[in-house]
Amino acid sequence: MILQRLVEYAERNNLGADQTYSDKKIYWQVELDAEGNFLGIVPRGIEEKIIKGQSKTRHVGENIPAPYTPQNLMQGGKKAHFIVDSAERILFWYEPDINSQKLSKLKTQHEYYWDLITKCRDNAAENKKQFEALLAAKKDLATIIQALKKQKAKPNQNIVFAVDSVLLTSLPDTKKYWAKHSRQFVPPENIRTSCLDLSSGMPISNPKTSHGKIKRVPGGNPSGTSFVANDKAAFQSFGLENALNAPVSTANEAKYREALNMLIQNGEHIPPEAIACFWTRRGVQYDPWSTIKEAAEEDVRSLLGSPLSGDKSATNIPEDEFYTIVLSGVGGRVMVRDWMETTVTKTKESLRKWFKDITIIQPDGLSYKSNHKLFALLGSIVREKFDELPPQLPIQIFQAALNGKQIPSTLLSLTVKRASMSVYVSKEDDPDKSGKEMRRAAIMRLCLLRSQSNQEVNSKMQEKLDKEQKDPAYLCGRLLAMLDRVQHLALGDVGAGVIERMYGAASTTPALVYGRIFKNAQNHLSKVSKEKPGAAVNMEKDIEE
């Protein structure tokens, strides 16, 4: 099912149509003139961002279509990529302390690269001069290396050559030669007469036995990670070796691979190491991530109020199927952490429910807050870093926002635990203490509203204090807050008050704790009644209620 949806996405966006080309990230463009003289280095992929009011630039590289060599052919260390490859392979750029084995391997790859260029030049028709210029540039390799060092380039970063500012990857003779050369990558006809393509359901006679790598998967290998692979005997029953346990045609393998690489490039990272990709079947533009992550007040207000606004445009949502896949890398393999198929309409309804369920009264006790950012919520239940959370939890919360389903019970227990620890933290140590307490309350409300353990009680939970609520745990919480208030009126700021000292015990063994707290409260009320008789009467009424 996943492969089928990825192939559909590729066909709609014209990805993978040329099976001999694939997107490859380049960092530096080496400029040559028509005679092959070195002109200079042009950095590719410069990104400018405003950080704390200051403009800063980052060199992140840029993806361009380049000749594609299957990763399995690169594993022996004897081959190099065509046209676009790392500076160390193309220029024979190595560190002085390189060991002899790696140097020998690098030399073989360097010679293989320039041998490909020579063969392409010999087979070229209209672009022979450009490849002759590239071969002439070999005399300047040391100069090019020095120029890259001045730009603080790294040997493992990809470079591309341009002759008279025209990239060699775009030349017609480059594509013709590589299309012919790539035929050797296609395995011979399979012994089977026919099998079904898992991505289309159509019969094929020559399924792809080794699939290409998926790039930039968090936690995966830097060189790429396998989405479809089979290298264990336990998965090779009935002779289904290599990737034949998921048979896919060569054409569709290129399509799903390019689609997944494109989606990951535009995906959103979920801590600690996962990435979420989403798309629609017919191309309706919809990005729920920004709504959950940024939670802009205007967007959330519009989302919550759209059914009541009377504005047709607010509810007239283009219907389309909506897909979400969450991936992470485990060694050399891609792990599908989650997969969801729904519609844009249902996703918007789920988001509306999400923001309603996390609505909570603010610390001032006057206004409500619904637009809690996802990472702000998660940040309120960790001490410092998100990797303190169970790896699957952020993904489960993200999916619960999109599909409206239950929240894992782990989240409630973690939130309560963090709340009990936070009572010992002062506002001086954490200026956002009240904000975090509000967000923890929002999480607790969310968990309880979606819990099935006591649905009748939970469904009545409000965003603020509910004086009609008769649940024992709810009343115990109210009492603890009142008794802490009594102590504060009587003694002022004593540092570790009732809540700081008794919260954990009162939450777990209330029958053993509340009697002692009430006894102390009577002494405090007696003192308050002498200094502030009106306040003492009001507190007694509240406690009695």
Percentage of residues in DSSP E strands:
15-25%
Overall radius of gyration? 31 Å
Q: What is the number of beta strands? A: 19
Mean pLDDT, nearest integer?
Answer: 85
Q: How is the biggest beta sheet arranged?
A: 5 strands, mixed
Tally the helices: 21
Derived structural class: alpha+beta
Q: Which geometry do the CA atoms define?
A: elongated
Overall helicity = 40-55%
* Distance between the ends: 58 Å
Low-confidence segments: 189-193, 308-315
Q: Could you describe the 3D structure shown?
A:
- By secondary structure, the protein is α+β, with helices and mostly antiparallel strands.
- It is about 45% helix and about 15% strand.
- It has 21 helices and 19 strands.
- It has helices spanning about 1-10, 70-75, 85-90, 100-125, 130-135, 140-150, 170-180, 250-265, 290-295, 295-305, 310-315, 345-355, 375-380, 395-405, 410-420, 435-450, 455-460, 470-490, 500-510, 510-530, 535-545, and strands spanning about 20-25, 30, 40-45, 45-50, 55-60, 60-65, 85, 160-165, 165, 195, 205, 215, 225, 270, 275-280, 320-330, 335-345, 360, 370.
- Strands 2, 3, 7, 8 and 9 form a five-stranded mixed sheet that branches. It has a four-stranded antiparallel sheet with strand order 14-15-16-17, with helices on both faces. The protein has a two-stranded antiparallel ribbon with strand order 1-6.
- A hairpin with a 2-residue loop joins strand 16 and strand 17.
- Helix 12 (about 345-355) packs across helix 14 (about 395-405).
- The longest helix is centred in the first third of the chain and has 24 residues, at about 100-125.
- The radius of gyration is 31 Å and the shape is elongated.
